[in-house]
Design brief:
single chain, PH-domain like, disordered C terminus, 3 helices, elongated, three-stranded antiparallel sheet, four-stranded antiparallel sheet, alpha+beta
């Protein structure tokens, strides 16, 4: 009976810790940062990368040893976004900083799409040419 109570308590504790982790999504696109969480009730926070002013990292001694920490994003004209403890926070901060740098650069003119066939070396069983076409043709 006591073993069943400990097992049930362990399962409940595991679910209390893991459900928020399983139901949290963090994404960085070329234009936005997206933070979603929740299982039954969904909360989403989005921030344009060009509006981010600061990305602050909080990482204690154990966080440095085991590579986890918290990030806080501060933007212009929007609420701050505080993320829960995440694994590899330095990689996310680097992705955010790279995206912020790319978002502030002017858009380069798109390269023209070639219309003539170009020969590429075929792999075994593949066709021996590839034709680039303009969209809509």
């Amino acid at each position: 009976m006591l073993a069943v109570a400990f097992l049930l308590g362990g399962v409940v504790l595991l679910l209390l810790v893991m459900v928020p982790i399983w139901t949290t999504e963090i994404g960085v696109t070329d234009q936005r940062f997206i933070f979603k969480r929740g299982l039954l009730w969904r909360a989403t926070q989005e921030l344009q990368l060009r509006a981010i002013e600061e990305v602050n990292l909080e990482q204690g001694l154990l966080g440095r040893l085991f590579d986890f920490g918290r990030l806080e994003l501060r933007g212009t004209g929007v609420d701050d976004i505080s993320l829960p403890s995440i694994a590899e926070p330095l990689e996310l901060r680097k992705a955010l900083q790279d995206g912020m740098a790319a978002a502030t650069q002017p858009v380069a003119a798109a390269a023209p799409i070639p219309t003539q066939p170009h020969h590429v070396e075929p792999a075994i069983g593949e066709i021996d040419h590839f034709v680039f076409r303009r969209p809509g043709r």
